[in-house]
Amino acid sequence: MQGIFMPITFNLDRMQGLSRSGVLRDREARDFKEKTPLFIPRIHISLLRYPAYAGFLADGINRGKIKVAALPRLTTPDALPGIIMSCPFLENVTWLVDQDVKSGEVPSTGSRGLGAPFYRPPIPDASIDAGFSIEHATSFLQQLESLLLDTGEPAGIALRDHGFPDVLEMVDTSFINARAWALTVESFNLGGMGIDALVRKAIALHQRFRLDIFRVIGDHVTPHQLAHAVAAGFDGMLEAGILTDASRGKYYTPDTVVRIQDLTELPCNCPHCQFLAENEPSKLDSMDKHVAIYLHDMTVLMDEMSRIRQLFRLGRFRDHFETRDHGSASLAAFQKKLDARAADIFTTTIDLASRASINFIGQESYTRPEIIRFRNKISEHFHFPPRTAWIVLLPCSAHKPYSDSPSHAKFLSAMSRGFKHWRDHCSEIIITSPIGVIPRQLEHCFPAAHYDVPVTGYWDEKELSFSARMLEVIINKAVHGGMQVHGIIAHLDGGYRKACELAEQSLPMPVTYTGEFESATSRDALMQLEHVVESMRESGDASTAADEKASPQVEDLRVLVDYQLETLAGATAIPDAIKFRPIQGGATQVLDRASKLPLLIIDGFSGHVSFEKAMLAKLWAAATEDPSIQLKKIQFCDRVISGSNLFPGGIETVDDRIAAGDDVFIHDSDGKLLAQGIAIVPGSRMKEMKGGAVVSIAKKLH
Amino acid sequence: MPTMLPDNLKNIAIACRLDADRDRKRIRSDDAGGKVHSWFAPAMLHDTQGHELVIILATRGCQHYYSDELGCTMCGYNNDSTGEQEAAESIEAQLEIALQKHENDIASSDVIVAKIFNSGSFFDKNEIPATAQETIIQQLSRFSQVKEIAVESRPEFITTDAMHRLKENARQDQRCEVGIGLETWNDEIRLDLINKGFTLEEFLHAHDILKENDVGTKAYVLLKPLFLGEVEAFEDARATITRLQELYVSTISINPVAIHAHTLSEHFWNRGLYRPPWLWTIALLLHETFTMPTRNKDVLVLCDPVAGGKPRGPHNCKDSTCNQRILDIIKNAVSMQDTIDGLNPLEMDKDHACGCYLEWIDQMHL
Question: Which residues pair with A582 in a beta bridge?
Answer without folding.
Answer: A588
